[in-house]
Specification:
Helix content of chain A: 25-40%
Strand order of the largest sheet of chain B: 1-3-2
CATH class of the largest domain in chain B: Mainly Alpha
Number of strands of chain A: 10
Structural class of chain B: mainly alpha
Distance between the termini of chain B: 45 Å
Radius of gyration of chain A: 18 Å
Order of helices and strands of chain A: HEEEHEEHEHHHEHEHEE
CATH superfamily of the largest domain in chain B: Winged helix-like DNA-binding domain superfamily/Winged helix DNA-binding domain
Strand content of chain A: 25-35%
Shape of chain A: globular
Largest sheet of chain A: 6 strands, mixed
Oligomer: heterodimer
Number of domains of chain B: 2
Order of helices and strands of chain B: HEHHEEHHHHH
CATH class of one domain in chain A: Alpha Beta
CATH topology of the largest domain in chain B: Arc Repressor Mutant, subunit A
Structural class of chain A: alpha/beta
Chain lengths: 241, 179
């Protein structure tokens, strides 16, 4: 039977939600009551200055961090109270991740890296590599399947990371400063591909960035300040009569 | 579209490339600079007339045939010098947005109004415009990309000012209150 909560979540069309979540690291309060709702298929940019809590929020939404207070929901399921094993399973099967750098295994080839999530999900080796290799032309990486990722340029490495994040068809792609280490043109290429592929695959994207040019690729942006989310729609500006 | 003040200089630039008829100048202007707002024929010929009067272009004999004016125009040494001068001089930086926003922020702080909200609203408007320009880049050609990039970098500069000002609001509020 479907729970009332699940029905309520799905009826509102929210795939990911944070409700008034708080988290501290020692004496540092990273999140102080952050709330956020993301609809299925949406590309959302989470912006904010350094130390505002935007990356911590992303990690909570992805079930990597557990908030001390508040709730995190994913697809009608309360994420923050799930067992570690169930959350690990969700991260492996329903979520994809792209970070600024350091996410690929440099000793493995491009194809190995892309196939890795499928192999971890117990896909057959032949099928996993067939799917991994099918991603190469989509990311303009033709002919690089056998190259070790330690030998790639920054832009090539981020495109491999993108393929690895999307190969298992996740429902949500979490991206934390995905172009932070790239020059302007290479960053644009990566963002262009990220947005195009997410739309083709119907993947929801939650993108943390301090860069407005990157945020401009999203459907909507929110600001995180002092551990809270500020929605544009909630900003009240008094207008003189 | 380019500001009207640059139309004569842009036409001079097109004539610097090669002598042309008014019709060809209009076509090239619309292709490269019009961006959906084509130049009226009347404006082309009126501008060429003024440039000819001022000795910056010379008009040849009209060629026979139906249709628009078939008189070829060529740039003169005077026109060429004016175009070179314009091309080599940097345009004046335009800090108008910061000036207006600065005034709003200071006045808001003086009046106890929510300066941070004004900045947030402005940031939202800027990002929305950047989103529109980014979509133009994603769907348009290289010319569209170059123009959109110009707008994007300017908007980004404004946003950096907005972010830094947001971070300095507490100090600014104290200064405004104490003065």
């Amino acid at each position: 039977m479907t729970s009332p909560n699940l029905l309520a979540q799905r009826s509102r069309g929210f795939l990911v939600q944070a409700k008034d979540i708080c988290l501290s690291f020692g004496n540092t309060r990273a999140l102080t009551g952050a709330s956020l709702s993301v609809t299925s298929g949406e590309i959302l940019a989470v912006m904010g200055p350094s130390g505002s809590g935007k990356s911590t929020l992303l990690h909570c939404l992805a079930g990597i961090f557990t908030p001390e207070r508040g709730e995190v929901w994913f697809d009608g399921e309360r994420l923050d109270t799930l067992s570690d094993s169930r959350r690990t399973e969700l991260r492996r099967t329903a979520f994809g991740f792209v970070f600024q750098f350091g996410q690929l295994v440099p000793e493995l080839t491009v194809a190995d890296n892309i196939a890795l999530p499928l192999l971890l999900n117990r896909a057959g080796r032949k099928a996993a590599y067939a799917r991994a290799n099918a991603w190469l032309p989509r990311l303009e990486l033709d002919g690089l399947g056998g190259r070790r990722t330690g030998e790639l340029s920054g832009g090539q490495a981020q495109r491999v990371a993108l393929a690895r994040a999307l190969v298992a068809k996740p429902k949500v792609l979490f991206a934390d400063e995905p172009t932070g280490s790239l020059d302007t043109l290479t960053g644009e290429l990566v963002m262009d591909l990220l947005v195009s592929l997410a739309r083709e695959e119907g993947t929801t994207v939650i993108l943390v960035t301090h860069d407005a040019r990157v945020a401009a690729y999203a459907d909507r942006e929110v600001m995180v300040r002092d551990g809270k989310v500020i929605n544009r729609a909630e900003i009240q500006v008094e207008v003189s009569p | 579209m380019l500001a009207s003040v640059t139309v004569p200089l842009t036409l001079l630039g097109l004539l610097e490339r090669e002598p042309s008829h008014g019709y060809d100048l209009k076509r090239d202007y619309d292709t490269y600079f019009g961006r959906g707002k084509p130049l009226a024929f009347g404006q082309v010929y009126a501008t060429l007339g003024r440039l000819a009067r001022d000795g910056k272009v010379s008009g040849g004999e009209a060629e026979p045939g139906a249709g628009p004016d078939r008189k070829p125009y060529a740039i003169t040494p005077l026109g060429s010098r004016e175009f070179d001068t314009w091309l080599s001089q940097p345009i004046e930086p335009e800090p108008h947005l910061q000036t207006v926003l600065f005034s709003k922020v200071v006045l808001a702080l003086m009046l106890g109004r929510p300066a941070e909200n004004y900045l947030d609203a402005q940031r939202g408007a800027h990002v929305q415009r950047m989103r529109e320009l980014t979509e133009i880049k994603r769907t348009g050609g290289l010319m569209d990309t170059l123009l959109a990039d110009h707008g994007l970098f300017h908007l980004e500069a404004d946003l950096r000012w907005i972010d830094v000002t947001s971070a300095r609001l507490t100090a600014l509020a104290e200064m405004v209150r104490d003065s």
